[in-house]
Design a protein that fits this description.
Blueprint (H helix, E strand, L loop, with lengths): L12 E5 L3 E5 L10 E6 L2 E10 L9 E6 L11 H10 L1
Antiparallel strand pairs: 1-2, 2-5, 3-4, 4-5
């Protein structure tokens, strides 16, 4: 649901992933902190809680920060530990 309580589907781009959440950009609908969003990657789907949303007219417009919900699956199909080890090696 968006800030007007209307359901929506939209493609967006992942900017950052962690074990605790994800940052997404390219969102064209306004959402509010505290709202739950269904996020889908391929056939995998999980709910996330909106932590912050970039204000309209700001440089963060269209970006949102989502927090993982403990009972939901990790849908991103990557090994975060391995990614951090490779990044640390430079």
């Amino acid at each position: 649901m968006d800030a007007n309580s209307l359901p929506f589907t939209q493609m967006a781009t992942v900017k950052n992933i962690s074990s605790n959440g994800v940052e997404i950009h390219g969102l064209m609908r306004q959402v509010l902190p505290g709202e739950l969003l269904d996020v889908q990657l391929g056939e995998d789907r999980a709910q996330y809680r909106v932590v912050w949303a970039g204000r309209m007219g700001s440089r963060k417009e269209g970006e949102i920060g989502l927090e993982s919900i403990e009972a939901e699956p990790f849908i991103w199909n990557l090994d975060l530990l391995r990614c951090s080890q490779v990044a640390a090696q430079g």
